[in-house]
Structure formats: structure tokens, C-alpha cells
């Protein structure tokens, strides 16, 4: 099994280039099959989740052609199968976006019930409520969601909770429904705006994405487009916290600073210096980090996908910090792994109480999910000695060339799969 091996203690320094937003790309790839014309998508991150979704799209008959590592051509005119099998869904939860896309285009879709990262229950009741409001009959049978409609008709849909997945899925289905759909209490994340902009570039009529009321006038058909995906705010934030935890000085390039405001604000609170430029952000951590409190909230609040990274960073800050997780109930699994590295973190309910320590020590740890895995790497970079992070298959779901980018910033890290490679790394860094 592949793992990362890290010798900690080096402040990160230099520049890092951020890739396309994974979460935007997943919605955009699903939406790309809603036209029979060829769509070209650029700035695609080369990560496992994206590659699995492309396989799922190919599996139903769409033509997928890789132009290069970060660009793809998709043509959905030959789709013959409206059934997304469990083998894709269990690898990547966002395959369920094909439900909204196929339902919108063909008035029918069958998708296995989702899997994905094990960070708590992520019910899809709001997705199904939205499809039903548009006139689809939705049943769950033999482990699949089966949605079908004679025709989809616009409606007024109020989401009971703010949910990114349901907002995107309903938006896609409504794009080709008859009449007008209004989604109230919609999620406002940057990747929702990106999916809406992509659909609009194909001829959809969507207004209000990025606010809590989205208005969609259905159109009969969508056409070809070329589109470039926004930068990944979570990848950017991860490198920002890595700079903070290691006492580094890093310029994070190819970002939209506005999308990073919640992250930047917390970094300044704990004593980092932040400089914003047009499409980059510099993070400097010259002093001992200070404690703070943080609560995850839907955008523009502090992102749940940055919660493990800030918790690990606050574990090295002076004083007591509290991190409250209000989105997912199962997102502190990595705390037991952090205890092996000397962290003083106690979980009570949906809050972690963190008593800062002066240093972590290297240990063998295991990534329980995507973002927690990245946070354990950050801890290893800041730790004294050698850290081995196992189960990095989770990390590779959402970070492209993670170890390569960290190496360019001066980190001593390698991806290894044998005892021999581990020994070689240890000899090299000792």
C-alpha cells in the first residue's frame, strides 16, 4: 500500500500553484452530458474523484477524450444507458450529480445510493424532494434511486437545510424543465456559481447563483461550450495552513482571494501575516501561533472541508482553542491519530477542545478521510522526526501531486510502497 513518509521540522517556503476546484469540476462534468454537442473543459484537477467520474460518464456511453492532463472533451450524444452502477458510486459520492443531469436531459435516471468519504451521514432527501417538486416520480429500489418523469415542470422549491449537493442537482434538472424554478435557501458556495456559469455558457438561463435564491428558466436544449474551472479554495487553504503550522512563508498562486476570506481571517487571528494579490495570497507565520475559536458554517462561513487543517494547526498554538463542527457529525476521527503525535485534543459532542503543545512528534498514522488525511500530512511536516501516513488513497481523491507540490516548498516527503523505500528515505534524511 502506498503511503507518505515525512521528515518534519522544515518551514515551508516558496510558491505553489493551485489546481482546478474538484467540487466544481464534479458538478460541471456531470452537466457536460446534458447537450448532444461537444463540450471542452479546462483546468480540470487530475485527481482520483475526477477520473472515476469520467469513467462513469464513459460507462453510460458518452465519448470522453483527454486532450491533456487538465483538459477533456466530452460528447453526450451517444448515451444509451441511464443507469449509474454502484462500483462508481461507492468510490465517489458525487456520481449522484448524474441523477440531476440525466433526469434533466432524458426525464429518467437510475443511480446507486452513494458512498464516499466516511465523515457522517449526508442524506439525499433534499435532492429527491427537489426532483419530486419538478414532477418526477422517485423511488428507491434494489439499492438504487430511480427517477422518472413524463416531463419536468418548474416549481418553487424551499430546501429545508442548506445543501450544496441538492442545490447543484436540482439546478441541473431544472435547467431543461418547462417554465421557471425558484430554489430558496440555496447553498452559496463558489462551486455552485461555477456550475451555474457553466450551464449558462451552454445556453441555460440561471440567475442568482451565489445568493440564497436561484431562479432558473427552463430551456429546450443546451449547446457546446468551452469552459475553465475555478481554482480550488480547499487545496489553497490546505497549503495556507501548512505554511502556518510549519512557521513558513508561502505564496499560494492561481487562487481567487475572495473565496479564501474565511480562511485568511482565521490565519490572521492566530498571528499569521496575509498579503493578498490579484490571483495569489502570501502566508507568513513568523511568530508563535495564538489560540482562537472557530465554527464551521455554510459559505461564506468557515468551510467544513478546512476543519481538520485548522484543528491540527491550532494544536501547535499557545493556549486553548475550540473548534465546533456544525456540518458533519463524524468529522473528528483523525483526533485519535493526532494523539499518537502528542496533540492534546479532546472531543466533546461536536466540538474539539485543543490545548496547544509546543511540538508534535513523528508517528505512524492513518488517514480516515480526504481532508483529515491532508491535515495529518500538515502535522507530519511540523513534527519532530519521521511520520508515516497510511491510506493515502483518500488524500489522492482530492489533491493532485500533493507530495510533489510540498517538495517544491522544501518539505522532506516521499510517496513509498515498500520497506526498502522507507529505509532509503530514512537514510537520505538522517
TrEMBL record:
Binding site for phosphoenolpyruvate: 22-23
One annotated GO molecular function: UDP-N-acetylglucosamine 1-carboxyvinyltransferase activity
Protein name: UDP-N-acetylglucosamine 1-carboxyvinyltransferase
Compartments where located: Cytoplasm
Task performed by this protein: Cell wall formation. Adds enolpyruvyl to UDP-N-acetylglucosamine.
Location of the active site: 117
Pfam families referenced in this protein's UniProt entry, alphabetically: EPSP_synthase
Superkingdom of this protein's organism: Bacteria
Catalytic activity as recorded in UniProt: phosphoenolpyruvate + UDP-N-acetyl-alpha-D-glucosamine = UDP-N-acetyl-3-O-(1-carboxyvinyl)-alpha-D-glucosamine + phosphate
Record GO cellular component, one term: cytoplasm
GO terms for biological process, alphabetical: cell division; cell wall organization; peptidoglycan biosynthetic process; regulation of cell shape; UDP-N-acetylgalactosamine biosynthetic process
Modified residues (2-(S-cysteinyl)pyruvic acid O-phosphothioketal): 117
SUPFAM superfamilies given in the database record: EPT/RTPC-like
Residues of the Enolpyruvate transferase domain: 7-406
InterPro entries registered for this protein in UniProt: Enolpyruvate_Tfrase_dom, Enolpyruvate_Tfrase_sf, MurA_subfamily, RNA3'P_cycl/enolpyr_Trfase_a/b, UDP_GlcNAc_COvinyl_MurA
Lineage: Bacteria, Bacillati, Bacillota, Clostridia, Lachnospirales
Organism: Anaerosacchariphilus polymeriproducens
Enzyme class: transferase
Amino acid at each position: 500500500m502506498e503511503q507518505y513518509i515525512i521528515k518534519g521540522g522544515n518551514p515551508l517556503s516558496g510558491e505553489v500553484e493551485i489546481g482546478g476546484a474538484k467540487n466544481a469540476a464534479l458538478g460541471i462534468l456531470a452537466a457536460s452530458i446534458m447537450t448532444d454537442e461537444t463540450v471542452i473543459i479546462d483546468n480540470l484537477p487530475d485527481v482520483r474523484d475526477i477520473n472515476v467520474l469520467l469513467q462513469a460518464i464513459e460507462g453510460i456511453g458518452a465519448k470522453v477524450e483527454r486532450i491533456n492532463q487538465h483538459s477533456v472533451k466530452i460528447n453526450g450524444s451517444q448515451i444509451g444507458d441511464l443507469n449509474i452502477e454502484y462500483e462508481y458510486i461507492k468510490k465517489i459520492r458525487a456520481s449522484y450529480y448524474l441523477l440531476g443531469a440525466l433526469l434533466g436531459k432524458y426525464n429518467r435516471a437510475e443511480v446507486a445510493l452513494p458512498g464516499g468519504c466516511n465523515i457522517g451521514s449526508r442524506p439525499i432527501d433534499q435532492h429527491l424532494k427537489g426532483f419530486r417538486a419538478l414532477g418526477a416520480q422517485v423511488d428507491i429500489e434494489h439499492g438504487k434511486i430511480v427517477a422518472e418523469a413524463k416531463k419536468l415542470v418548474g416549481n418553487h422549491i424551499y430546501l429545508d437545510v442548506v445543501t450544496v449537493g441538492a442545490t447543484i442537482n436540482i439546478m441541473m434538472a431544472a435547467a431543461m424543465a418547462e417554465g421557471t424554478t425558484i430554489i430558496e435557501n440555496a447553498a452559496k458556495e463558489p462551486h455552485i456559481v461555477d456550475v451555474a456559469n457553466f450551464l449558462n455558457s451552454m445556453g441555460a438561463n440561471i440567475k442568482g447563483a451565489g445568493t440564497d435564491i436561484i431562479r432558473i428558466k427552463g430551456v429546450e436544449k443546451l449547446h457546446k461550450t468551452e469552459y475553465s474551472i475555478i481554482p480550488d479554495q480547499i487545496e489553497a487553504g490546505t497549503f495556507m495552513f501548512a505554511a502556518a503550522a510549519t512557521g513558513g512563508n508561502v505564496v499560494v498562486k492561481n487562487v481567487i482571494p475572495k473565496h479564501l476570506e474565511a480562511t485568511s481571517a482565521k490565519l490572521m487571528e492566530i498571528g499569521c501575516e496575509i498579503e493578498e494579490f490579484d490571483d495569489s495570497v502570501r502566508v507568513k507565520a513568523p511568530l508563535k501561533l495564538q489560540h482562537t475559536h472557530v465554527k464551521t458554517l455554510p459559505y461564506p462561513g468557515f468551510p467544513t472541508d478546512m476543519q481538520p487543517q485548522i484543528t491540527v494547526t491550532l494544536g501547535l498554538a499557545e493556549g486553548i482553542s475550540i473548534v465546533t463542527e456544525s456540518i458533519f457529525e463524524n468529522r473528528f476521527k483523525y483526533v485519535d491519530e493526532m494523539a499518537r503525535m502528542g496533540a492534546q485534543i479532546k472531543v466533546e459532542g461536536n466540538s474539539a477542545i485543543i490545548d496547544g503543545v509546543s511540538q508534535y512528534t513523528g508517528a505512524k498514522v492513518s488517514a480516515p478521510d480526504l481532508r483529515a488525511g491532508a491535515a495529518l500530512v500538515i502535522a507530519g511536516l511540523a513534527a519532530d522526526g519521521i511520520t508515516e501516513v497510511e491510506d493515502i488513497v483518500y488524500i489522492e481523491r482530492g489533491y493532485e501531486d500533493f507530495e510533489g507540490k510540498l517538495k517544491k516548498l522544501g518539505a522532506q516527503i516521499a510517496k513509498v510502497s515498500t520497506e526498502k523505500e522507507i529505509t532509503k528515505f530514512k537514510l537520505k534524511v538522517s
